[in-house]
Target: Kinesin-like protein
Amino acid sequence: VSAARHDATFGFSAVFDTGASQEDVFEGSGMRQLVELAINGFSCTVFAFGQTGSGKTYTLMGPLAQRETQPASPALLGLMQRSFACLLEQSQSRGSDLALSASYLEIYNEQVRDLLSPGPPCTLPLRWSKTRGFYVENQLSVDFNSLEAIVSLLLQGSQRRRTSAHALNRHSSRSHALLTIHIHSRGVSTDPAPGEGLGGVHHSGANSPSLGCTCPSKQGTLCFVDLAGSERVKETGSSGELSVEANSINRSLLALGHCISLLAKPRGKRTHIPYRDSKLTRLLARSLGGSGITLMVACISPSSRCLPETLSTLHYACRARRVTTRP
Model:
């Protein structure tokens, strides 16, 4: 970053300029490897972070105007649709041993709401257990086995998300959205053919010895998090309900930043990580500091007017890059 009184250098795993295509971002960000890791039973998360209007939703989903009846041009599709296609290709190449389901929720004004359940979005309780960690109670999970089905779920949920217009963005997300793909790979048993069992006899009775081998089943997740953009109320001109939403968004992003700063410290110097400070940090606890693998996409605006927010985003991303997890 080269600007008056702000000469700073930042290093990242990959950097894409304004000329990069959606395909470039998918291939260059490591997203394909993340999909493969999720299939192999890992818990993987990708989240887009940055100021309002910097292109987070576009990077993840592509153009906002797309509908089921009017899909976007394939070249403009985002990380999510490309990951779905990659996941289903892998699923088909492995045979039918993968069971796929999806859940989709938003955090709006510190309330967790299901975006897939029929009727108006209902508020769901967030619970904690020793075995599962933080989880959302009664969340709807929908099975799918085709690209059309999961894209339809994505568009259906996205249209129910809270958005508003302000001075910096005509379609500003007013909530954080989390779409989670659950990947259950069933164990495949390979019994020998008749005549290849013990002593040339094929056993099939209840007490017969087990033959061949059974692969253990694996459960992986692939979670996409579209964070609402940080915003300065003075710049966006927000007032009334918009101002309340902005304060709620900024508070949860501040809590997320605080957790990331503490996680970036060496393990011996870490104090208590305050995941309970917001619903967002509770739901991202395992992705940030647990046994997951996480990709952070930091989106910045090329406008000089946005320099303070750009520097804030880059410092945030640098801290996130120092966080190490044990998948």
